[in-house]
Specification:
Adenylat/UMP-CMP_kin, 216 residues, 46% helix, Rossmann fold, nucleotide-binding, five-stranded parallel sheet, alpha/beta, single chain, Adenylat_kinase_CS, ATP binding, P-loop_NTPase
Length: 216
Amino acid sequence: MTTDKSPLHEADGPCYQAVMLVGPPGVGKGTQGKMLAQIPGIFHVSSGDMFRELDSNSKCGQIFQQYAGVGKLVPGHITIKIWQDYMRAKVQQQVYSPESDLLILDGIPRNITQAGLIAPYIKLFKVIYMVCEDREVMFKRIRGRSLKENRIDDSEEVVVRYRWDVYKRETEPLIDYYPQDLIRIIDANTTAADVLHQILSTTVPIQKNHFKKPRM
């Protein structure tokens, strides 16, 4: 496994205008991300999609496999380099336009370390914090989704609670890390349509005030 600690990301690069989705496993981020991605003028990036599209023959792809292959988390500087390459590719493919598309970050940054590394490359308008007070509702959603997608191991109680513990330890501290005027709390213990309405009440004014009219 590589021990090279030198930064893989560029010292300078494009700055993307973004909103971040944060919330525990089972809160519905994936569902909202899919719906938001269908709206002109919004480009949704999930960490899962980003890693799945990673070229295993690339330098980052090979390093990623060294960690993922033994069940270890990818170091933050490598994750941000992968993200930069992914964003650059989407611009080149003309599926994402930084001038007209609001970037929705879902699952990245994962923790405070990644937040610091990604900061020079994004202009963050809001952190959309999806909250569901009933933890058992989220556990039920995770188990149901895992069974539906035939991921039996992920539906086991110990796995579900482990994912929750990792979120509480790694990701939830982001809510205190960012300035509180950036945080927009969303009640996720309601219908998907209502959650989407709450999110759009935040993103639409940002689109109107900061972006060119999107391509239809």
